[in-house]
Amino acid sequence: MLQAVGLSCRRGERRLFSDLNVKVEPGTLLAVVGENGSGKTSLLRIFSSLLPPEEGSVLWDGQDIHQLKELYAGQLTYLGHLNGIKDDLTPLENLMSATSLAGEPCSNNGAKEALEAIGLKRPIHHLPSKVLSQGQKRRVTLARLWLSTRPLWLLDEPFTSLDAASTNVVTQRLLAHVQRGGLAVLVTHQEVALPAERLQHLRLVG
Amino acid sequence: MNRSSMWEAVSGIVKRDLLLAMRRRSDAAMSVFFLVIVASLFPLGVGPEPAVLRTIGPGVLWVAALLACLLSLSRVFTADYVDGSLEQMVLVPQPLAVLVAGKVFAHWLISGLPVVLLSPLLGLQFGLDGEPLGVLALSLLLGTPTLSMIGAIGAALVLGVRGSGLLVALLVLPLYVPVLIFGAGAVTGSMAGVGGEANLSLLGACLVLSLFLAPWATAAALRIALE
Predict the structure, then answer these.
(1) Judging by DSSP bridges, how do beta strands A55-60 and A2-11 pair with one another?
(2) Separation of CA B44 from chain center
(3) pLDDT by residue (tens digit) across B53-62?
């Protein structure tokens, strides 16, 4: 269970949010919505432990994530709004190096299947990533979701530049994840088509 | 997290960086070419007098190697920072310092090792031969990883700062001075017949110290850069 207790965050002179309390139970997805600049990404980065909160704390199963450190990192898959893709590597190489870095190495075939699951066909697997479109690059990043066995997923606007079909595929994957008892926190501007009992909204007002 | 997965993550980083360097050979070759050009221009500039060349040789080669390392420093973290891979590197179940050590090792393999291998050839241009030539290569073998390790701290500190190239030079050059003195001193000592062992031991000590401390300092700087 992921829990935020009395979180507040300030970027420069601006206070983005204060005394924020939210709880994400296993098997549910938290969709963080709000205007641009309302602190959605900052909140996600606080959840990921990249950004220390100004006040308050984030608890994972009751323990502060800044004390858990690497143990907490072993529980989560974080996909930021940057893709983390190298233009000179192929989608296959990108995906495999990302998973081996995350400590969940996958086989060549596993990576190919993940890329196909998100709609990248085999001929694309061996092209340098710099020739891919924005949406295809995003999909290379998101293919990690098919290889991740981590309970907590933190995704920053995963649907950006995806077409309707891919959005649907990713949503199905998210549904499978929460049905397995996983947790997810999503920053998004779009509606997430999940059953209401699995979905929780958090609206940030800047 | 167990040891094998840590090893896997580190070797994954080293392999990826080497692969990237293979795909972008011109970037990787730049610092080596810089070294060769600088080392070749000096004999042309100061004239072909063997005695003069032998005197300035160790210093010139060491300064050239140091500047070549400085040139390539910006590549250690900048690309990863811009494309988001660095965030992924920080959020892994392995200690960040170990991964940093892997990245610096890859950087040394790409830009430091070629310098070490080329140095005997460049030393010949300055009239070095026999034992001093060996000491030159050995001093660079001990010294260039130290330069990479210290440089990584600077490179991590200036991440995301405008005009970071100049800033990193100002930050790390003072820290490079001891390595330069011991390195060039080892070669000069061996030419003078007193042997380079003392300076080489000091270089080794610098290397061990930087191997121990630099990854932690770099990891801390990276976390600050990503906040």
Answers:
(1) antiparallel
(2) 26
(3) 999 999 999 9
Compare CB distances from A70 to B84, B93, B226 and report the shortest one's residue. Answer: B93
Collect all residues of chain A within an 8 Å Cβ-Cβ radius of residue B89.
Answer: 101
| pLDDT tens readout for residues B126-142 | 888 888 999 999 999 99
**Residues of chain A with C-beta less than 8 angstroms from the C-beta of B98:** none
The reply to whether residue B226 touches residue A50, judged by beta carbons under 8 angstroms, is: yes
pLDDT beyond 70 at A103: yes
Chain A residue with minimal CA distance to B2?
A: A103
CA distance A186 to chain B (A): 17
Going edge to edge, which strands form the sheet with A55-60?
A: A14-24, A2-11, A55-60, A63-64
Q: What is the mean pLDDT of residues A37-50?
A: 91
Instruction: Using CA coordinates, name the residue in chain A closest to B23.
Output: A88
The ipTM (two decimal places) reads: 0.88
Burial call B112-150: b when 16+ CB within 10 Å, e when fewer: bebbbebbeebbebbbbeeebbbbbbbbbbbbbbbbbbb
Element of type H or E holding A134: helix A134-142
